[in-house]
UniProtKB/TrEMBL annotation:
Family membership: Belongs to the class I-like SAM-binding methyltransferase superfamily. rRNA adenine N(6)-methyltransferase family.
Protein species of origin: Vitrella brassicaformis (strain CCMP3155)
Domain Ribosomal RNA adenine methylase transferase N-terminal: from-to ranges: 24-192
EC number: 2.1.1.-
Taxonomy of the source species: Eukaryota, Sar, Alveolata, Colpodellida, Vitrellaceae
Region: Disordered, residue numbers: 320-364
Skewed-composition ranges (Acidic residues): 348-364
NCBIfam families: ksgA (TIGR00755)
Basic residues: bias regions: 328-339
GO molecular function, one term: rRNA (adenine-N6,N6-)-dimethyltransferase activity
KW ATP-binding (keyword) present: no
Xref: Pfam families: RrnaAD
Keyword rRNA processing in record: yes
Keyword set, alphabetical order: Methyltransferase, RNA-binding, rRNA processing, S-adenosyl-L-methionine, Transferase
UniProt-recorded name of the protein: rRNA adenine N(6)-methyltransferase
Amino acid sequence: MTQPSAGLLLEKKKGQHLLKNPGILDKIIQAGDIKSSDIVMEIGPGTGNLTVRLLPLAKRVVAIEVDPRMVAEVKKRASGLGYSNLEAKEGDALRTDFGRFDVCMANLPYQISSPFIFRLLAHRPLFRSAVLLCQREFAERLVAEVGSEFYSRLAINTQLFCKVYRVCKVSAGSFTPPPQVESMVVKLLPRNPPLQVDFREWDGLIRICFRRKRKTLQASFKTKYVHSMLESNYKTWCSLNNQIPQPRPIREMIQETLEEVGVTNKRAIMLDIDTYFQLLAAFNRRGIHFVNVAHTPGQAPGEPTYAGIDEYFFYDDGDMDEGTGKGGKGKKRKGKGKKREQQATPMDIDEDDDDEDEDSDEDE
């Protein structure tokens, strides 16, 4: 097999760690289940160690690489092996048009993992599968199951769009140069057809529930901010639908809804997607919505829509939602950034300026 040229300097800021372990490369190929009619999109081909294994299997391989030196290198290797079905182009995986493809293969730098997941799962037409190599901690959050320590907004929102499977762990020694963290290969299978849900409503609900994911839902819905936001949305919905608002406090309507679904004393990490669907539907039946309907003209809340979904829908919130006791603010993961704060919406409750319960009792 034609070898890559020696002497290419790798840049850490671009997350350039080349996978060299042939056993791992073969597992990635096997997970991809490539057909001879497939168009494969490869993100971050580097010098082409995976690319040269894809070319004899696929109809065409479209390799997107941010480093022009790597683009030249992978073209050189493919040409040297006599392959003419490679389209290698310089581009940023977060901005380049993907076009149509059947299978995605990607070696992801950690800093772009969440926004790339968003771009990939929002892409149309739907692809058949994706095999991603990413930092192990991030991968564990993608595949996290109900009740596990890694179960978070990232897990439940990703699994709303696709099924995620572990393929294999990858040690640091499998790369040149070795990264400081372990990696993991995961496989994504998009739900086809996609689940029908208003993602604005879904996101609003999930943010409240996972704000302090180890508290009960009753406690999560007790804050003054949540009551104020839901009451405002409820009154707006009643006004627009010529309904007379219920003459009782919003907290009673919330409590009634939680009891109906049987989740009052359940914690966010113990509930699966189906239960959250039931909870959202129960709130909506009462006219309680997680998006201000006055801000969404022409689109009734609850109708299936991708509106309002951006890369932060798949934000890796990690353990930021772990409470530290009465008055505690919980741990914050770095990397949230000013951009996130600037894009806050009425349903974004990640702010810490109003974290007190309506009443004083702590419900952990």
